[in-house]
Amino acid sequence: MDINLRIRGIYTTALTKFCIDNGLSVTAPSKPIEDRFRHHPRIRPDRPVDIEIIDMADSQGIVLAGGEDALITVAELICTHFIDAVCREANSPEEAALEIEFPYLSKSALDDIRQTVLPTVIHHHRLKLIDTRAVDLVEAEELAPYPERRAEVSSALAARLIWDTYTAGKELAIDHVKLDGRTLALSEGTVIACDPDSHTLVLKRARFQGRHTYDGLDVPKTAGDYAITVVTEGNVFYSHTYFRPDGTRIGEYHNINTPIECYPDRIRYVDLEVDVVKWPDGRAEIIDRDDLERHFAAGYLGTELYTMALDTARQLLCKAP
């Protein structure tokens, strides 16, 4: 099937390169894209548009709209290559549309694709969501003249935009994104420790929302309880340990998710539904596996991401508390 795409948004260069390398065509390119891919036979400026690709409202992924057959073909191609991509239906009253969210691994893969076209800092697409101008300046003035310094330049930029902002006592939001696209705002965490070298944060959380018992543990919440939450950027899980006011340990909850992304004011991930809970007496259990199975069957996530979630759950279950 000869499919013509019109692509707009922060992922345009990387997606254009990915699509033309995989036999798709790009039509109505912007002037910068036409210049970057000059004379490539798959850049076809005057072809009719079969699929329109734009950024999601929060730029955490893309929206594809167009004819259903072409839409499915393009979405399957993207989701097959980007293993933590999450695909879901998008609201569009006029035509068929899908959203594809790009979590940590997908953004990193898109960074690497863009690097084959232009000087690109590591974590380019995530850092662009934080400060577009800073990324553009660093890539033009520090990376382009000295491409061999990519790791050093990238690390310094990430430190300035993210890791240097994490001071003790700072509150961070937790964006708990569901596979269907809903974002649940968990109670904020206060930074009590930060290790920029390992990209690890330790948060204290003392304002719990929702139910009167701790999920999975089936233990009542009481006034003064708190949690110590350990988060490492890029990890496919993170852990809450709950305590009573006197320090008595209530239990542990290990959330399994797409690799964690850190931002100056929040952490973000897509929840993969399955989790592991542990009690102080040594009992441990995998919970909500049925939810993972249901979303996998519905096509939200691919086989590799599904397998990663289950393997992570099994490893955590066997790990000593």
Summarize the helices and strands and which ones pair or pack.
Blueprint: E1 4-7, H1 12-21, E2 25-26, H2 31-36, E3 51-55, E4 61-66, H3 68-81, E5 86-89, E6 97-101, H4 104-115, H5 124-130, H6 132-143, H7 150-161, E7 171-177, E8 183-195, E9 200-205, E10 226-232, E11 237-243, E12 249-257, E13 261-263, E14 266-278, E15 284-287, H8 289-297, H9 303-318
Parallel strand pairs: 1-2, 1-3, 7-14
Antiparallel strand pairs: 3-4, 4-6, 5-6, 7-8, 8-9, 9-10, 10-11, 11-12, 12-14, 13-14, 14-15
Helix pairs in contact: 1-4, 5-6, 8-9
In short:
The protein has about 325 residues and is α+β, with helices and mostly antiparallel strands.
Relevant terms:
FomD barrel-like fold; 31% helix; six-stranded mixed β-sheet; alpha+beta; 3 domains; seven-stranded mixed beta barrel
Question: What can you tell me about this protein's structure?
Answer:
With 321 residues, the chain is an alpha+beta fold. The chain is 31% helix and 30% strand. The model has no long low-confidence stretch (mean pLDDT 94).
